[in-house]
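Q: Okay, next protein. This is Sulfate permease from Leifsonia kafniensis. I've checked the sequence twice, so it should be correct. Can you predict the 3D structure?
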Amino acid sequence: MPAIVYAFVVSSRQLVASPDAAAAALVASSLGGLALAGSADYLTLAFAQAILCGIMFALTSVLRLGFLANFLSKPILIGFVGGLALDILVSQIAKMLGVKIDSGGEFVDKVSGLISGLGTTNLTSLAMSVAAVLVLVLGRRFASAVPWALIVLIGATILVVTADLKDAGVAVLGHVDAGAPSFTWPVISWTLWLQLIPSAIALTLVTMGEGLLVSRSYGEKRGYPTSPNRDLMAFGVSNFAAGVSGGFAIGSSTSRTAAMDQAGSRTQLPSVIVGVGTLLLMLFGTSLLENVPSPAIGAIVAVAVIPLLGISEFRSLWKLEKFEFLVGAACFLGALLLGPIAGIVIAFVLSLINLARRAANPAVDILSANDSPDSSLLPLEPTVTMTAPGVIVLRFAAPIFFANVGVLEDAARKAVTRAGAGSVSHLVFDLEAVTDIDVTGAEGFGELLTWLKEKSIQVHYSRMRPEIRDRLAHFDLIEGTTSFGTNRAAIAAFADPQRQPQRQPQEE
């Protein structure tokens, strides 16, 4: 149901929505503490969680909140998904070894349970897991188009049946109910609905960040338009369909989308075919699933989630930007040790801190006569080179708001002071990169203008955007100033009437 509904609503021609590894890991880690994995209550909670995700996706679409995905930067996604992947990997390793652990427990408990249970390792399960991993890894390396996971499942199942490996202690999937999906509404208490909201928010945000990015990238790659808000609505209706038809929350699958793109698919028809094929399997083929061995399932899932650990991505972040690496590492540890909800909270807090850190320290340049920035505002520089005799052109490369107006004030005062008493008669603010100013920023900027007036320095604005002119006028910061365009020679000429500007064709 989710695959078919999604195919008819989404704007992307290629993005595949499915229960991907990241979503599965988040669902498992968030529900493990609320109910026993595999129980009826566990399934009911999963259905309810999917419905909540559907509602949240629909709301983000109606309210046009797709921009929230921009707060999940690459380091945050790498760390968050990596932490969940490692948590689920421990459970799969236990399956591969035939060791019983509490898959719904905390990560530390899982690791300690796995280590203490190594003495109970089932050698037959271990041998099957090693063989499955080798087939998956080597097969994908030399023949990536072949469905090796399906081959491993079929081969391992045949081996279990023919060699009667259940008697040797190999765990199997067990009975799977046959029949078409029944449309039901999960009946749980309001307290449980409320407990599911944080994890549903986390699922929505992670899926939103990855899904919109992949949708946009393939649209640009193949030359067709996409609509972010329509894609969010598609995720909404598909998750709602999953919840009412017996499925858990779904997200976007980057790997399946890439496989379909490589196969030449440019429509959503494969998703419809998958939906129909799954229905046929549920109607006529569930008996084939009963003897699927758990070690083989664990091997398949383990191989699938290992790339989600983000090892190569973390290595790249360490080389490119240490702070971004620390952000990713904090999200990784938060999601792993504190849980997915705490992980997503840490992710947003770090995003805001990183945003504030960058916005609070914008570039401030003194422009030279040929428009190149001069780095003379560094604290250790004893003097400042003026743009022209008596003129300083100062460029502030950010919106002026409460967190950075002090930087602007300090830079302007230093520029005037270090130029020497009485040396500066005109200060030009190049506002090309200034897109907004708030109340606190306007107050601080007004104090700076008053200080410049006391120094008998005439203030001018250069390259103002119309909306900034209106904002400055609204805050009474226009009176007593003049405006100029981009020609630096003209600025020098007005400062010194005897100086004739050297006009060049490109400047004109």
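A: Here is a summary of the prediction. Residues 190-222 form the longest helix (33 residues). Strands lie at 17-18, 251-252, 364-367, 373-374, 391-396, 426-430, 458-462, 482-484.
Q: Noted. On to the next one.
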